[in-house]
Amino acid sequence: MGTKARAERKQLLLFTSVILGSLALGRGEVFTSEPHVRVAENKPAKLSCSYSGFSSPRTPSYEDRVTFSHSGITFHTVTRKDTGMYTCMVSEEGGNTYGEVSVQLTVLVPPSKPTVNVPSSATIGNRAVLTCSEKDGSPPSEYYWFKDGIMMPSEPKGNRAFSNSSYSLNHKTGELVFDPVSAYDTGEYTCQAQNGYGTPTRSEAVRMEAAELNVGGIVAAVLVTLILLGFLILGIWFAYRRGYFDRAKKGTSSKKVIYSQPAARSEGEFRQTSSFLV
User: Fold this and answer.
1) Beta strands of 32-172 (E only): which ranges?
2) Which domain holds residue 42?
3) Is 111's pLDDT higher than 50?
4) What's the whole-number mean pLDDT along residues 36-46?
5) Alpha-carbon gap, residue 124 to 209, rounded angstroms
């Protein structure tokens, strides 16, 4: 569930009588005893809403899954899609004044197993980004990274086990950034997602190797490429000096056509009278 869906404002009008455009905020009071309701998914939930100063409030009907009363609304069962901000509005029947109060409903869903993106190798001195995420947790999960089974602190320099590393981690987004990568960063990395509801879940462990840039290998590859290119150029030059290209050109233009005039023949006599040589 995305942030946008969680921040969605639900307009469940508990007591209303006329179009909002013709209403004005009145002297009546609308209040709630619980402005933030947290309830597990597939359980009932009540959003309290009380009022005073309205002589004859009116209650509209709603979906079958919600029951209205003078003290609020009750969901028979909630799903993660019901998470959001709800507005309780009260107005007098036949009147033109209203009052309102908002209640935040958070449907609790434990996090699912997070997925991680960890590079199999990283070059020492370069930047490396590891990511972790899961889609089901409500409220949104926070993420914690482990290296070789040890939880990584937010400030590596203050921890002896990680003092040789230079990284930053964001518990909200799940990003772990090494900048730069050091030889000490080689290891198995695991991400844990937790949101205060249910059991925290961990990803599979993925190993990252921190390696030096192989300058010698790069130089050797460049030299081999240059040598092969030199042999190719030398071969072309040798073929040109030997005249292979000239012979090829002559071969394509040496075709000849020989035409013989027909000899005189008597009527009824047939024989080959012309020939072509290509």
Assistant:
1) 36-40, 45-48, 50-52, 66-69, 72-75, 84-91, 97-108, 115-117, 121-123, 128-133, 142-147, 150-151, 167-169
2) 29-108
3) yes
4) 93
5) 10
Specify whether 44 is located in the same domain as 96.
Answer: yes
Hunting for tokens 């799903």 — which residue is that? 79
How far is it between the farthest Cα atoms of the chain? 135
Residue 94 contacts residue 23 (beta carbons within 8 Å) = no
Q: Which of 165, 180, 211 represents a domain boundary (last residue)?
A: 211
Measure the CA–CA gap between 187 and 4, rounded to whole angstroms: 36
Contact call for residues 74 and 45 (beta carbons, < 8 A): yes
Quote the tokens at residue 76. Answer: 């028979």
pLDDT classification of 6: cutoffs 50, 70, 90: very low
Residue 265 Rama label (left phi>0; alpha psi -120 to 50; beta)? beta
Would you say the pTM of this structure is higher than 0.70? no
Residue bearing tokens 């990284």: 167
Dump pLDDT digits (tens) for 170-197. 999 999 999 999 999 999 999 999 999 9
The answer as to whether 262 is a domain residue is no
Edge-to-edge strand ranges of the sheet holding 72-75: 45-48, 72-75, 66-69
Give the single-character DSSP code of 261: P
Whether 51 and 72 map to the same domain: the answer is: yes
How far, CA to CA in Å, does 79 sit from each of 39, 48, 200?
A: 10, 18, 21
CB-count burial class (<10 Å; 0-12, 13-18, 19+) for 263: exposed
Residue 8 lies in a domain: no
Residues 81 and 108: beta-carbon distance below 8 Å: no
